Amino acid sequence: MTGDGGGFVDTHLHLWDLDRYRYPWLGDAGCEPLRHNYLVADWRSDAAGVNIAATVHVQAELDHARDPVVETAWLASLSTNGTRVPTVCVGYADLRAPHLDDVLDRHQGHALFRGIRQLAWYDPRSDRADVPRYNLLDDPSWVAGLDRLAARGLSFELQVWPHQLDQAAEIFRTRAGLPVVLEHTGLPDVSDPDRRARWLDGLRRFAEQVPRSVLKISALRQVSPTWSAAELTPVVHEAIAAFGPDRCMFGSNFPVDSLATSYRGLWHTYAEMIAEYSPAERDRMLRTTALRVYRIDGPLGG
Known about the structure:
Blueprint: E1 8-13, H1 40-47, E2 52-58, H2 69-83, E3 88-91, H3 100-107, E4 113-117, H4 140-151, E5 155-158, H5 165-172, E6 180-182, H6 193-209, E7 214-217, H7 229-243, E8 248-250, H8 263-273, H9 279-293
Parallel strand pairs: 1-2, 2-3, 3-4, 4-5, 5-6, 6-7, 7-8
């Protein structure tokens, strides 16, 4: 299977090595099928037959007690060991930390580093290791950390619940110098019409108020655990309409979404979902917007 033009850019890939590192969230209930190493060779096996131009590794919630630059350094060692996978990466940092600048300095010592993701969804009652119990958007020190990213030309990956989108828009609309990627399709809740409308309204307002933002369409297993194109396509079309084809891109969220579909099946479904758009629009959604956002140039591929 090939992508439009020069192939797909997978904007959301995870690799992990359980022999080296600890990933607390993999101990959560329901994660049992993912408790195994997922390395470059595993991704290559899954991606066989799919025309992938480049990959973006997004931090995999390695134990926050470790130095977060450990993950970036490990990925850099993989990508320079003849594999070219991943092409670039988004690392982790606690934006509230007093030593944030030191962490960013060391992240930026690796050529593949592009920005930061710190999960900002929250639930005071959650027992999940990857869901904070407090709202980072309320913390002035966290907000100030965003300005440190902007000053360095880095990007931020935002993962929030739909009910947080208005507050997030207030924060990011005044930071025109900070590229922000809204992850995982804005975490759509389509369990009833009211929740679906709240997600979509929040998405539209965020797109309007934060014009430099880009939507990453990914993690759709939460919408359809069986990966039903009939269930997924209307949600994807609503999301694209909110941001416009020029500000959307696609990611696999592998291996997490391997619980719902194969890698080949995922990209086939994505291509089918957007078949009605023009060739130029499809190329932007599947490739060129990601190349711009993640500042990928030169020879691609893996």
